[in-house]
Amino acid sequence: MFSKGNLAVTCWSWRSMRKLFLLLSLLLSHAAHLEGKKDNQFIWKPGPWGRCTGDCGPGGVQSRALWCFHLEGWTSHLSNCDENTRPPKERSCFRVCDWHSDLFQWEVSDWHQCVLIPASPGQAPPRTAECVTAQHGLQHRTVRCVQKLNRTRVVNEICEHFAPQPPAEQACLIPCPRDCVVSEFSQWSECSKGCEKQLQHRTRAAIAPPLYGGSQCPNLTESRACDTPISCPLGEEEYIFSLKAGPWSKCRLPHLKEINLSGRTVLDFSSDSKERVTFRHQSYKPHHLSKPWDLEIGYQTRQVWCTRSDGKNAMLSLCMQDSFPLTIQSCIMPKACETTEWSSWSPCSKTCRSGSLSPGFRSRSRNVKHVAIGGGKECPELLEKEACIVEELLQPCPRYSWRTSEWKECQVSLLLEQQDPHWHVTGPVCGGGIQTRDVYCAQSTPASTAQKAKEVSRPVKKTLCLGPAPSASQLCNIPCSTDCIVSSWSAWGLCIHENCRDPQGRKGFRLRRRRVLMESTGPAGHCPHLVESVPCEEPMCYRWLASEGICIPDHGKCGLGHRILKAICQNDRGEDVSGSLCPAPPPPERMPCEIPCRMDCVLSEWTEWSSCSQSCSNKNSDGKQTRSRTILALAGEGGKLCPPSQALQEYRSCNDHSCMQLYWDTLPWGPCSEDTLVTALNATIGWTGEATCGVGIQTRRVFCVKSHVGQVMTKRCPDSTRPETVRPCLLPCKKDCIVTAFSEWTPCPRSCQPGNATVKQSRYRIIIQEAANGGQECPDTLFEERECEDISLCPIYRWKPQKWSPCILVPESVRQGIMGSSEGCGKGLQTRAVSCISDDNQLAAMMECLKQTNGMPPLVQECTVPCRDDCTFTVWSKFTPCSTNCETTRSRRRQLTGKSRKKEKCQDSDLYPLIETELCPCDVFISQPYGNWSDCILPEGRREPQRGYRIQGDSKECGKGMRFRAIACSDKNGRPVDPSHCSSSGYIQEECVIPCPFDCKLSDWSSWGSCSSSCGIGVRIRSKWLKEKPYNGGRPCPRLDLKNQVHEAVPCYSECNQYSWIVEHWSPCKIHNELRSLRCGGGMQSRKIRCVNAADSEGGAVDNSLCSQDEIPPETQSCSLLCPSECVMSEWGPWSKCPQSCDPHSMQRRTRHLLRPSLNSRTCAEDSQVRPCLLNENCFQFQYNLTDWSTCQLSENVTCGRGVKTRLLSCVRSDGKPVGVDQCEQRNLEKPQRMSIHCLVECVVNCQLSGWTAWTECSKTCGHGGRMSRTRFIIMPTQGEGRPCPTELTQQKTCPVTPCYSWVLGNWSACKLEGGDCGEGVQIRSLSCVVHNGSVSHSAVSVDDALCGEMPFQDSILKQPCSVPCPGDCHSTEWSEWSTCELTCVNGRSFETMGRQSRSRTFIVQSFENQDSCPQQVLETRPCAGGKCYHYTWKASLWNNNERTVWCQRSDGINVTGGCSPQARPAAIRQCNPACRKPFSYCTQGGVCGCEKGYTEIMRSNGFLDYCMKVPGSEDKKADVKNLAGKNRPVNSKIHDIFKGWSFQPLDPDGRVKIWVYGVSGGGFLIMIFLVFTSYLLCKKPKPHQSTPPQQKPLTLAYDGDLDM
Predict the structure, then answer these.
(1) Which CA distances in Å does 252 have to 34, 275, 380, 1185, 1423?
(2) Quick check: 1473 and 1442 in contact, CB under 8 A?
(3) Mind listing the pLDDT tens digit for each residue in 1094-1143?
C-alpha cells in the first residue's frame, strides 16, 4: 500500500515524465522534418483524377487529391513538399453528356495479320516440325475514339462513357508453315541432230507461294547435255552466227572538241569535258512567262557485234547482211519536270479552340512550269498538307445549338383535308390537328448574356448544329366547345314576392329551376337559362302549414267532435320559421269532425290530392286536382245515412298560371378590356398573375325573353334572378412580334464562274413569336436577295502549238566519226513550241492548260529525211467531196517525184500506195431503246406550302404522269453517237398512271338509339357501316363486325319517374250478392290507369309499354261494404320504418283504429300488426351503381383530339331492381366524385412526305448503265390508322446514253531490233481514240483522235526496251499461266476470305558457259476471290523389290512438289528391323522376317522370328509357308502350333536349353514336396482328449420384433 504522500509524488513524477516525453518527441519529429527537408526526402503523390464535372463539352473540370509523402512511405503535412514541383490539382476536361453519343463512336480497323506469339525469354521457340494443323498467334487492330462527322480522333474517355473499349488484340491461329508448291516438270526439250554440244531443258511452274515461314521454291529449271552419238571433228562444229545489238546509250550532246573553228568536226569520245553545245532551231521561241525553255536534240549510240551459238564472239564479217544496222540516232535530251517554288503555307484551318482535341491542317502548293520530256523525272506532288498545332491563346470556338420558334396555330383543317380532299370550312373547327414551328441553328449564348433582353441569335447553316434536330411538327388539339347538360325542370314553386325581404304589391312570381349536370367546355360552350318564372297574384313568402290530429268526440264515444290542428310557419324554401312572419290570423287550433255511431254510415278519410292534370293553364283548359273518399259501411236503421256519390269527390284548380314562361337570356361575354377604375386598382394591388398585364373587365348583354314570343321588357322578369353583366378578367398580355436577326449573306463564290450567269446571294430571318393582342406587328421582309459583285468569269485556256521545226539529224561530224558515212539522211527528230494561251490570246502559265485539258500536245516527233535511194512523193491531195448517198467513198492521191518515178521498187503499190480510199461520213442514225422504263414521274407542281406547312396534299401524289426510257443512238456503222442526233431529250416518253390511294370509306354515324332501359342504366348504340373498301395503299378500315359495321355504345340513364302510372280513384264497391235487398258484403271495384310522361306539360297519356310493367297498378280489386251491424275499422296505416341494416330481430308495426263498434258487441278485428324486417322482402338496402367509362366521346364532326369519357350513376335496390337516384340520396350514401374525365382519341395522320429533291448527277459520265435518282423523306410517320407511307421513297431513271471516248493502248509490238538478229531492242504500241457505250461486251471502234481531246503526254507508256535472246544466251521464259485461286485452309475449312494465285518465270540455259549470266527465277502472287480449299496427300505406288515411288498430290488430282507434310512422308525403301540373320530367313514384302520355301516360322512371344523349322516331306510336296503369321497372331493361338513348337529336343539348334525343360523340372520338384507333406500328416499320432466341460444350458433366442437383434 502507498501512502497518500507517495501516491502524490508518483503522480507528479508521471506527469513530468509525460511532458518531457512529449517535448522530446516533438523535438525529434522537428529534427526529422528539418533533416527530411534538407535531404529533399518528401515527394508529391497525386491521387487519380476524379470525374469530369461542369458544362457539357470541353468546359468541364477534373480535380484530384494531393499528398506529401516521405520517401520511407509515411504521409506528412503538405508544407514539407517543395511548392515549385507541386503537380496541378485541377485540369480542364471534356465532360461527356448523354447526347454526345450521337457525335462520338469507337472506330476499329480490320484485324492485322496474325503473328506468332513471341517466345518468353526462358522458353524455346516452337519448332516447325511439331506443328500439326495450326499454331497460336496474336492479331492486333487499331481502336480509337473518333468524331462521327470528320473522323478526327479524340480521347478514349469520351467513348468509354457510352460503350466499353473494344478489344485491340485477340488470339488467332496461324496455319502451319507451307512450302512453295510447284507443278511437275514438263517434258525434256528435243535435241537437234547436229554433232555439236547441246543442252536440253525442262521447266515447271510455281502453283502456290511459300506461306507462314515455309521454304522457298526449288529450281524451276533443269538442264542436261544431249546425248550426241558422235562428236564433231575438231574445228568442224556447226555454229549459228547472230548479229547482236546492244542497248542504246543515254542521250548526250556533242562535245566542243568535236567542232573545229573551220566548222569541221573532230571526233572525241572523252567524257571528262563538261561543256555542251546546244543545237537550237532558229524559229523556236520561248513560251513560258518566266524564262525560255529549250528542247535539246542530242544523239545516242549502240554497239553491234557478232555472236556464236556457244556464246562466244565472232568476227563481224560472219554476221554481215545487206545493210548494216543503225548505230547512231537523234534523241531528245531528257528534261525533268520543272515546278515553281512552294507557295507559303495557308493559315491553319483551326482558328478557334474547340473540344474536339484534333489539330488543324494547313497546305501549300506549287505549279508545273514544264512537264518532263525525254524520259526525265516526272513531276513531284504538287500539294502538301500538314497538321498545325493549335495555340492555347485561341478564343473558344462558337458553339451552336438547335433553336425553335414558338408553335404556330393548330391547324385542324390539315388533318380533315387529308381524310377528305373535298372538305371545306363550314364553321368553327376543333379537335385534333397539326401545328408547325421553324427549326433553325444558332450560336449558343453564354448563360451570363442570355438573360439580357430579347436578344435572338441569327440563324446559321444547319450543318453547324450537331445531334438530331427538334421536331418541326406535332399533333395538337383545339378544344371543342360543348354546351351544358342540365337536369329536367323542377315543379313550379309557390307564388312569392320578388323580394321577400321587401315585399311590395300584390304581384309575384312562381319559379321553377333546373340544375347543371355537366358544365360547358371550350370557348363557345353555352349554358341555357336555369330559372323560369311566371307572374302570379297574391304572393306569399311565408305560409302556415297545418297538420290534423285524430277526431276526438265532444260527448260520449261518437257523434260530433273536433280535431286539433298543429300549424307551422314555413318560408318559400320549405324551412320552418317564426310564426310572426306568417299572415296575422293563424289557422284555428281546432277543426270540427264527426265520429259515426253504431248505425251511422261510415266514410273513409279523404285521399291525397291527385297530381295536377296540366303544368300550366291555356285558353282551352285549366289544371285540376281531385280527391275522394269511399263508403266503408252502410247506415242501419235510425242511423245517419250515407251522402250521395257526388259528395264523395272534391275538385280544385291548380297550375292556373299562363304557359308563357319568362326567363333571362344572355349574349356571350365580350373581350377583356381595360377599365379606368380597375387600372387604378392595379397600380396599388400587386396582381399575382402576370403583373405586367393586370386585370380588366368583361361585359355582356342581358335581356328578358318570353317563351314562344321573344324579347320583352326587362321589368317583366324578376330582378332577383337577373344574371350579372360585368365580371373581372385577366387582360391578355401584348405580344410583340419577335424575329431573329438576318442571317449572314450567303457567300459569293471566291473562284471564277463559267459563262455569264448571274450569281445571287441571299439572307433570311425567322419569326420566333407572332404578334398578338395589339403587339407590334411582324416586318414584311423575311428574305432578301442581291447580286454578287466582282464575280470574275473563268478564262478558257487552250494549247497553241507552233509549227514543227525542220527534221534534225545527228550532227554530220558525229555521224562521220562513228559510221564513216557522210550522207545526211534517215531518221531524225523535229520539235515545236507549245504555249498556253487564254481565250483572249494572252499567254498564261502552263498549269492553267494542264488543269483544263487531259494532256499536252507532243513537243517532239520522229521525222525522216529521205536518202538518195528512198522513194519521194508529193504531199497527199485533199479528199474528193462526198455525195449525199451514204454508200459513197472519198479518196485522195499523191505522186512519185524526181528519180523515184523511175525506180522499180517505188512502183510497188502495196508498199507505196498512191491512192487512199475511205467511206464518206454518213448522217443516218439509228436509235434503239436501252434499259428499263423509269418509274412513273408526275409533273412538278407548285411548291407553295399551305398554312406554313407542307402536307401530302400539296404535291400531286397520284394521277397521270410520264415514264422515260433512254435511247442509244448510233451511226450507220454501229458507232455510238450523242443521243441528240436521234432525239432532242435522249428519251422515249409515254404516259403512265399512278393509281390514287383510296381510303376505307364508312358512312356517317347513325343517330343514337334509345336507351335500352326505361329506368336506371342502359346502353345507347350508334353505328357506321362500310361503304367502300380501301385499295392502292389507302387508309385501312377499323375492325368491323360480321355485318361490316362498327358500333359505338355509351351508357345512358333514364329517370325512373320519367314515365309513371297515373291512377284515378276507385269506383264505388259493386256488391256480388244477387239479392238486391242486401246492399252489403263482398264485391268488386275498378279504376282507370294511364302512363304519362312527367315532362309533358299537358299531362297526356303515352303508350303503356313505356312505364314499368313490374309496377303496373291493378285496375280491379275486391272490396266489401260492411253491413250496419258490423264493426268498422279504419284502413291500415303505413308500416313503420325498418332500420337501414334490415336487422331481422327488429319489427315493423302498423295500426288502425275503430271507426264504428259492432252492434252485437263482438270483438272487432285487430288494430295493430307486427312483422320482422326481412331483407329483400319488406326491407331493402340501396347502393350506388357505376357504369364503366364510356368510349372517348368527341364533339360532332370531330374525328380526333381531346374528348370526354363519362360514366353514369344509378341507384339499385338490394334485390337488383333499379330505383330513382333520390332513394340513395335520401340515405346520404357516399357518392363517387368524378363522373367524367378527359381523354384523347389518337389522330389518324396520313404519312407526311417532303417534296422530291432535284435529280442527282448521272452515276456514269457516259455510256450504258448510268442512273439518276431523286428522293423524298418522311416528315411525319403514319399515326393510328392513317394512310401508310409509300415504299417508294426514291425514284430512278436511266441517263441518256452518251458515247464514251477514251484513249486505248494497243498491244506491244514484237521486239524491234532495227537491223540486228538478237539483243536489245524496243517495243512500241499505239494510242488510239475509240468510242464505246461503256458496257463490257461492247467492242470499241476507232474514231477520230480529236474526239478524245488532248493525248496524254507520256512517252514511257508507248515505248519500252525489250530483248531477243541470241542462240546460246541464257534467257528468261515467258510468264506461266496464273494458277487456280487457292484459299488457306485448316482441317478443310477456309482460313481467309481472299485466296491467292501465282505465276512464275524461270530461265533457260542454252550453254553451260553462259549460265553465270542467267537471270533469277521470279514468283508473282496476287489476291483473288472465289477460291477453293485444296488438301495435299502423299501417294505411293506398289512395292517392287522393297522399293516404291512416293509423290504428293493435290485434291484436284494434280501431282505437285511441296504442300505435303514432310513428317508424314511414307517410306520409299523398305527394310526389316532387326535384320533377318536366322538361317533360311529373308525380308518379306510386309517388312518382317519370313522363312524360305520348305521351312515354317517359329515365332517368339514378341512377334519376331525365332527360327525356321524344316517341314517334313517338303521335298516332295509344296510346303505351306505362312509369311505373316507371327506378326498378326499370338504364339499360343492354336493347339497344334504349341505342340509343333515343343519337340522332345532339350537343346535349341544354337545349343541353349529349351524353356519346357525348366518347366518340367520345376513341376516335378513341387510334386515331391507335396508327397512328403502328405505322408507326414498321415503318419502323425493323434493327441489324447481332455475332460469334457460341464453341460451348459442351451440359449434360446426368441425374436421380439426388435430391429437390434
Answers:
(1) 85, 11, 25, 119, 44
(2) no
(3) 766 666 778 888 787 777 889 898 888 888 878 888 888 888 988 888 88
1284: preceding bond cis by omega (within 30 degrees)? no
The number of angstroms, rounded, from the C-alpha of 367 to the middle of its chain's C-alpha atoms is 47
DSSP 211: B
C-alpha cell at 433: 390537328
- Cell triple for 1392: 481467309
Neighbours of 1483 (CB within 10 A): 16
Is 1186 in contact with 1233 (CB distance < 8 Å)? Answer: no
β-sheet with 959-971: strand ranges across: 925-930, 959-971, 987-994
Using the predicted structure, report yes or no on whether residue 419 has a pLDDT greater than 80: no
Q: Kind and range of the H or E element at 1389? A: strand 1389-1390
List of residues 6+ apart from 1231 with CB closer than 8 A: 1184, 1209, 1224
Burial class (CB in 10 A: 0-12, 13-18, 19+), 1181: middle
* CA–CA gap between residue 637 and residue 599 (Å, rounded): 7
| Tens digit of each residue's pLDDT (9 = 90 or more) over 1476-1517 | 888 888 887 677 888 888 888 888 888 788 889 888 876 544
Residue 1262: count other Cβ atoms within 10 Å of its Cβ: 20
Nearest alpha-carbon partner for 1361 in 131, 478, 83, 246: 246
Residue with cell 487552250: 798
Measured CA to CA, the distance from residue 421 to residue 946 in angstroms comes to 14
Nearest to 140 by CA among 108, 164, 118, 165: 108
Do residues 767 and 781 make contact, with C-beta atoms less than 8 angstroms apart? Answer: no
Straight-line distance from the first to the last Cα atom of the chain, in angstroms, rounded to the nearest whole number: 74
Closest C-alpha to 141, from 169, 102, 105, 175: 169
The residue behind cell 529533399 is 40
- Within 777-845, residue ranges assigned H as helices are 812-819
Beta pairing class for 169-175 and 143-147: unpaired
Query: Residue 1419: its pLDDT value, please?
Result: 92
Q: Which amino acid is at 1172?
A: P
Quote the pTM value: 0.57
CA 419 to CA 479: how far, in whole Å?
A: 20
Cell readout for 620 is: 282551352
Q: Are 1507 and 1478 in contact (CB under 8 A)?
A: yes
Quote the CA–CA distance of 1302 and 519 in Å, as a whole number.
Answer: 84
Q: How is residue 463 annotated by DSSP?
A: G
Cβ atoms of 103 and 147 within 8 Å: the answer is yes
Detail the DSSP E strand segments found in 1-49: 42-46
Over the stretch 78-89, which tens digit does the pLDDT of each residue have?
A: 888 888 888 888
CA distance 287 to 834: 7
Q: What is the dihedral of CA 1117, 1122, 1126, 1130, to 10 degrees?
A: 60
pLDDT digits (tens, 9 = 90+) for 1373-1425: 888 999 999 888 877 777 778 889 999 999 888 777 777 778 888 999 999 98
> Side chain identity at 90, as an amino acid letter?
E
No. of H helices and E strands in the chain?
A: 11, 103
Q: Is 85 helix (H, G, I), strand (E, B) or coil?
A: helix
Report residue 1253 as a C-alpha cell.
429533291
Are the beta carbons of 1401 and 1376 closer than 8 angstroms?
Answer: yes
Question: Is the CB of residue 737 less than 8 Å from the CB of residue 778?
Answer: yes
What's the grid cell of residue 550?
A: 285524430
Which of 976, 989, 988 is CA-nearest to residue 1297? 976
| Burial zone of 595 (CB within 10 Å; 0-12 exposed, 13-18 middle, 19+ buried) | buried
**Which amino acid is it at 1237?**
I
**Residue 266 to residues 258, 273, 572, 600: CA-CA distances in angstroms?**
4, 14, 154, 188
Alpha carbon distance 1131, 1127 (integer Å): 13
Closest CA to 1044 of 1002, 1010, 1004, 981: 1002
- Average pLDDT, integer, range 122-141: 68
Residue owning grid cell 291555356: 618
